[in-house]
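Let's do one together. I've listed all components of the complex below, 601 residues spread over two lines.
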Amino acid sequence: MESKELTEKIASLLAEKFGGKLDAQAKWDAAVVVPAEYLHNAVEFLKGDASILMDMLVDIAGIDYQTYPNHEGPRFGISYAFKSTVNPGVRVRLKVLVGEADLKVPTISDLFANANWYEREVFDQFGIVFTGHPDLRRLLNHVEFVGHPLRKDYPAQKRQWLSTNDYLLPALEKRLETLGYRVVQRSKEVGTNDNEFLEGSIKE
Amino acid sequence: MIVLDPNGEKLNLMPLNVGPSHPATHGCLRFMAAMDGETIVASVEEIGYLHRGFEKMVERGTWQQVLPYTDRLNYCSAIMNNIAYCRAVENMFGVELPERTKVLRVIVNELSRINDHFVCVAAAFQDLGGTTPFMYAFNPREEIMCIWEKLTGARLTNSYARIGGLYRDSYDGFERDVLAALDSTEKALKDLHACLDRNRIFLDRTVGIGKISAEKAISYGWTGPCLRASGVASDLRKDEPYYDYETYDWEVVVGTQGDCNDRLQVRLAEIEESVKIVRQALKRLAPGPVDIVDPRIRVPAHKLAYQDMEGLIGRFKSVYEGIRVPEGEYYCGSECANGELGFTIVSDGSGHPYRIKVRPPCLTQFAAFHDLVEGGQLADSMAVLSGLNIIAGELDR
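Okay, and this is what the predicted structure of the assembly comes out as:
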């Protein structure tokens, strides 16, 4: 099959160019583990190279290997799934491993628009920080939520008391600024705590 | 708030909160818009109001116990989600399904698609103030719901598929019911087209509204009818065919403008294609088994559990310990009503899923919402929202 050959070619190119290696865990599709520092280059290569053209980021999934049997190496994995709309049927996954000591991965939200929300979700659920992300807030969980629920050591039955609404005004101001507007006078509704809330979700 | 626009002109903008409980935000969505009069200057979205921790919940049960949760992802076409999940796990086992199961899955898949698209179009028109098409669309939907009732015992959250088969075979008279539902679907389509195609009010509200180019849609990771409305002929049923979709005679529907009207018209045209597929599939429906015979994957039939020692053991092992999916990581996407529903599955070889990540088609579409509504009017945002068919169940998981 043609798409299968192309997939294999892409995987070996990635492994060769970016110091990655084929992921032995991927038995049914192609996946390459790349070092975090080369992730951005690897994604740029996937998207831009004329012979490959993996133009769609399908998904970003965080994985916590803490209780995985016989797992060696860093605790967290992030799996990026790509597909091509030009060559239908060609799919490849990139995987990045990060340890607890340094939970940092470069963002790819400048390359793919939907990476913005996917990365926010991974940050929300696993606490992995995407450096260079324009707006790293929690996506699904509440702004007051403490901890990262999809980590294996987060108790499934744990309850938290949440009291307030998510503040969108600071985010709206940020959006206006990216569109070229400049906020002269803030809305009356912006409380003094709003920025703390915003930063509070970025901290930790 | 007072802002200076890019030309240095002073503007007094009003921040306006919409949702999470707004009649047009089906489910719970929220966005905040900076309004200049009636025009949306900037908008930010907020999701998570229906977040119930699907991915955390499934880690606590067995592989089979994930199924009822998948119903609650896109509850307008629950069976489709069951099938997408089962397909992913079956691919990891590497099993081949019996012919009858494949054909039955195609039939229920396409009927679900018809259902989902009808709900979307009907609700979209309802949001714009038209109640008649809602009734037209819900007549055939009701017939399909009655088929679900007879087939699975439930109307909305069906849990019909099983890993390695189906919950049960179809009932007597299934073909007759499906054919009747298809006939009323075609009638409803005619009525809907009569309502929509040349309706001045509808066209004014939807043509050229919420436009998105093909490149942008791809960059946002759009899939399904919304991407196809922008002119990209991408459909997993053709691109990565499964269940012999490539052997049926049907076309991928593609729009041209990528606006709100196209997104709804593409859905209506897809219903027609689905009707074609179901009609062909009904002709292929030959008697045969619906479950694979492998107690390690599909639990042995009830009868065997009472008569046969191995059957009893197989049932106990399967129910209490869960089936053991081979160790490894896999991403598998299937074409659902809203687009590509994908599952990233990590298995450690035990009876419980180690990690399942859902890739909901709605998330990418709602992430682009601000791009669609900025510069438009507030009333347009409602037309855009319903044209995207955001289902909060799968958006928030």
